[in-house]
Specification:
The chain folds into two domains: 196 residues, Rossmann fold (3-Layer(aba) Sandwich); 156 residues, Rossmann fold. The longest helix has 22 residues. The termini are far apart. The strands form four sheets. It has a six-stranded mixed beta sheet, sandwiched between helices. A four-stranded parallel beta sheet has the order 8-7-9-10, with helices on both faces. With 402 residues, the chain is α/β, with parallel strands linked by helices. The protein is built from 15 helices and 15 strands.
Length: 402
């Protein structure tokens, strides 16, 4: 057979084989491990899954010739369940990155598994600062907010407005203690005082005892170091008891879904810090409308952060030419975070994604122009001011070269 015909047949055979080879590549699986039905179900849950899928839709269905799959599970706010799911995903199901991880104890447990297995975890929904300090991981990142970013702007603003003395109503688990401690540092630094605290377990229905203790303290401000449904319930009950006329309320981690659940007549005047608000820029409005069309609710900052983290991860996989954790994390750190959610963010060596935060106040019913028009933005807090400086991090890898 002539040489040119042999060469042509060889090229033709290669072209025929290429799709078959591509089909044999395993999918790139991303796991959304979240609270589906508990106190954070509305703030994260299926909305985080939808946000992750929007990121895939915007990136494209494949990366490096591999289809992209989103898998999800409910950790039920239990660290042992969360870590067991993470192990199964990593060991058996081919998941290469886990995200969301609502609940600080769950996030710390799963980041420990990811550190052990050498896999990527991008925490988009948890406040504990331990994730980028003593419990940091080489391939872990804290994406949307942390206790420092949530408390710094709010505490400083309220102390400046005359809220000098504080009493905390604190969720009785890792997140609550971390948030109270971080807020206390900011209050003291701004010239305020903390008179005491009372604790409540996660998913409490009745806050009457805690609110009576807060009222009896005589504090200018009652700081709510809780989140999700617990924040909504405690604010509603504080309103019923008339505490809002005697004390200012500072809610450190309510989500837009919680404000909607409370209603503006109850929530009006609350000061808080958020990482995302849908009605801020043309880009955030357009993306949020797409999310609304799927979920019939505007996105929380958790859901928006999950979109951003998944999109940035996929872009890094493409830039690195591999899904290997070390090159992917290097690419994530080398590239600014720019999308519909965050602008000019950057990922630090300790795993903190630094970006601007927003000090907001809940609108009065009269000022609101629609059901999701709930915040006035008081101030944009630059990222380097919103998050604790890298020099303060106790992340071991900063000092070990890891």
């Amino acid at each position: 057979m002539p040489a040119h015909r042999i060469a042509t047949l060889a090229v033709f055979a290669t072209l025929l084989a290429a799709p078959a080879l591509a089909e044999t590549l395993p999918p790139l699986r991303i796991g959304v491990l979240t609270d589906m039905n508990g106190p954070y179900g509305d703030a994260a849950g299926e909305g985080s899954v939808a946000a992750a899928r929007l990121a895939v839709a915007d990136f494209g269905p494949t990366v490096l010739g591999r289809t992209i799959e989103i898998v999800s599970a409910d950790h039920q706010n239990l660290p042992d369940i969360g870590s067991a799911i993470a192990r199964r995903w990593f060991d058996r199901d081919g998941v290469e990155m886990i995200t969301d991880l609502t609940n600080s104890a769950v996030a710390l447990a799963v980041q420990a598994v990811a550190r052990e297995k050498g896999r990527v975890d991008l925490v988009t929904s948890t406040a504990t600062t331990a994730l980028t300090n003593k419990e940091c991981a080489p391939y872990g990142a804290h994406w949307t907010f942390d206790a420092y970013a949530l408390s710094a702007g709010t505490a400083r603003a309220l102390v400046a407005e005359g809220g000098k003395s504080w009493f905390f109503l604190t969720a009785d688990y890792t997140f609550g203690a971390n948030l109270e401690a971080t807020a206390t540092q900011q209050i003291l630094a701004a010239g305020g005082t903390v008179l005491g605290h009372t604790k409540a377990p996660l998913n409490t229905a009745d806050f009457s005892a805690q609110l009576l203790a807060a009222d009896a303290s005589g504090a200018d401000v009652i700081g709510l170091a809780n989140s999700g449904a617990d924040t909504a319930n405690s604010v509603k009950q504080a309103f019923e008891f008339g505490l809002g006329t005697k004390h200012k309320l500072a809610a450190f981690l309510p989500f837009i879904t919680d404000i909607r659940a409370m209603g503006l007549p109850v929530a009006q005047g609350l000061t808080l810090t958020t990482a995302f608000y849908w009605d801020r820029t043309p880009e955030s409005r357009a993306w949020s409308q797409r999310f609304y069309d799927i979920r019939h609710a505007m996105p929380t900052m958790i859901q928006a952060g999950t979109y951003s983290a998944v999109l940035h991860y996929l872009r890094a996989v493409a830039a690195a030419g591999t899904s290997g954790p070390a090159p992917v994390m290097a690419a994530m750190r080398a590239t600014p975070v720019n999308d519909a959610v965050f602008h000019d963010g950057h990922l630090r060596p300790d795993g903190q994604m630094v970006h601007g935060m927003y000090l907001v106040r809940v609108k009065t019913p009269q000022a609101s122009k629609g059901p999701w028009d709930v915040y006035d933005i008081i101030r944009t807090i630059p990222g380097d001011e919103a998050f604790a400086p890298l020099s303060a991090s106790t992340c071991p890898t900063l000092h070990s070269g890891g």
